[in-house]
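Quick question: what would this complex look like in 3D?
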Amino acid sequence: MTKNKIRPGSYLFPTPTVLIGANVNGKANFNAIGWVSGLEFGPPLISISSNQQHHNNVGIKENQTFSVNTPSVDMVEITDYCGIQSGKKADKSEIFDVFYGELETAPMIKEAPLNLECRVIHMVDTSEIAKAKMGHDIFIGEVVQAYADEKYLTNGIPDMEKIKPLVLSQSRSKSRYYEIGKEIGVAWSIGANYKK
Amino acid sequence: MTKNKIRPGSYLFPTPTVLIGANVNGKANFNAIGWVSGLEFGPPLISISSNQQHHNNVGIKENQTFSVNTPSVDMVEITDYCGIQSGKKADKSEIFDVFYGELETAPMIKEAPLNLECRVIHMVDTSEIAKAKMGHDIFIGEVVQAYADEKYLTNGIPDMEKIKPLVLSQSRSKSRYYEIGKEIGVAWSIGANYKK
């Protein structure tokens, strides 16, 4: 095997696909992104990286709240639509059945199997830390409440096989959505007997 | 459908599975994590969130470098082993064929289809921003070089279907590894004709 140097990129395969909800000028808006990560268990923290051109960013900065909604594979078209159509041009406030929680300004999607209601606790601007030309806002949020219908839970805990999330392969050529495939093994277990 | 409030958590399904490489006290060490995210295209930035108890964090802080290695499904056992065995107790410097790039202190895994060589440009400590009891270090790295064998590329670009990455369902009950499943559609395309 020969290791070739390839053009540097933030290659990650796959990424989850989530719909970020924000109230912008008092109206619910949703955008699809793949740059999202867990950060901490207690308190539960999550980060999103959202292009500063996005309409959502205005509302997140104003209210210091956002939501992370996990769509299922059968929501692929409406999810992709949210990624294609900017909220600057299209009103996306009525394409979902929207609900609000205790933060009151983080719109969530009833149709999505899983919703995280987040309060911004920290922000990082990539144009400041790395002189990025088209900057991204990294919003770190505390998950103050989570919501899911009973049918997506097993013993009260979200179950990925029931959620059937949409996953994304991001690429400079074509980006594609995929389903989750077959289970390979139990983590923090299957490697216990590994011997080199 | 009834939305139930569930215990708040940083639920994300799935997460990628990557092996983070660092030199700790002059020796290569590798740990498996799922909390990783792209952040920016130009320059390419990536974040990892790594428990402050991890051996890796010592080396990343010392050298201000780390690597992100994407294992394929056939590396599931050795990947899981890296997540189970702390570098404080086990010497993981020789379980892979290790190579170094221009940063000289970010060990990379030859067997892994894709390697990102990163220089730390920013750090966030969750015990500072959120009073986390068992804190995580969020390392934001610039990808200074990327490496992949020709067989994982299509037109010079990493191709997920060739890489066959390992994905993780993290859960408070059992965490599990999965394969990528079937393609559903082209992103920023399949939703173009969505009508509410």
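Answer marked as accepted. The longest strand of chain A covers residues 136-148.
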